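Posted in: Protein Modeling Q&A

I'm a second-year student putting together a small comparison for a lab meeting, and my supervisor asked me to include a predicted structure for NAD-dependent epimerase/dehydratase. I've never done this before, so apologies if this is the wrong subforum. The sequence is pasted below exactly as I got it from our records. If anyone can share the structure token output, I'd also love a short note on what stands out.
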Amino acid sequence: MNVVITGASGFLGSRLTEALLSENSAVPVAKLLLADVVRPQPHLDPRVSTVAIDLNQPSAANLIIKPDVHILFHLAAIVSGQAEADFDLGLSVNFDATRALADAARHQVPSLRFIFTSTVGAFGGNLPPIIDDLTAVTPQNSYGSQKAMCELLLNDYGRRGFMDARIVRLPTISIRAGVANKAVTAFASGIIREPLNGLESICPVDRDLKLWLSSPNTVIRNIIHAATLPKDVLGPWRVINLPGISVSVDEMIKALHTVAGDKATSLIRFEHNELIARIVGSFPNKFDNTRAFGMGFIADENFEQMIRMYIRDDLKR
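Accepted answer (user: helix_wrangler)
Welcome! Here is the predicted structure, written out as tokens:
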């Protein structure tokens, strides 16, 4: 299959690239195009090509959505904190570019499997105790609003047969390797990653705040799994809440203590940030994933396991 990844230079894009190129990939890749606003790093695998492209430029989408493409993983986005700070940039990158890609698919390759990564941040406000795939989106931030707009647009394109849309709402990902990004949930990785690397980390929310979490490995497996599903299994609503686990900040810190002791947890300092606390506090933290599990999606077992996974895979310890 010929595959395109947008946002390929990002954390998830890089992980997705390696997973797709691995010997046990669930998607047989013949060609893989990595696209981002800054050209992704060259890859030794001969199946890989790279391109630097601004998806908001006229006709940019048509340069990567060509008739011989079978699957698009659309990961490119302005993250939550930056989208909240710069509304026009968020709208342009998160919505306008997505529509341009969808229109390119509609006119050039309506059989395209269009895998779009949305967010649990599409929910917010006065929510029911447990969220499922059919719970109405009521975002309380610009990033969530832009993703929700994309969900509705792509679902309608899928309904009309303009393309094969598959929309997955990602939990907050923990633990991300590297450095913190501008997402309002960046602390969910920082309060574990930084202490494990001997650095101080500031937590901007209260200990009792609960988050819906997934490890990077599990998220990548689920994103790829979305591309392998039979077209008709999704039915008329092509949006899936990916499975996760509900964990409080306090439980995260206790798991860190179990793994790394006082030396690590002593490096965490609480410094309340009202904007971050308000936005993240509006996200749901309990989901009914019956539909997703029935389709073969998976969840992590517990947060301690997620920490040990980061130590093994990223810190190589």
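A couple of things worth pointing out for your meeting: The longest strand covers residues 113-119. Residues 67 and 108 are 6 Å apart (CA to CA).
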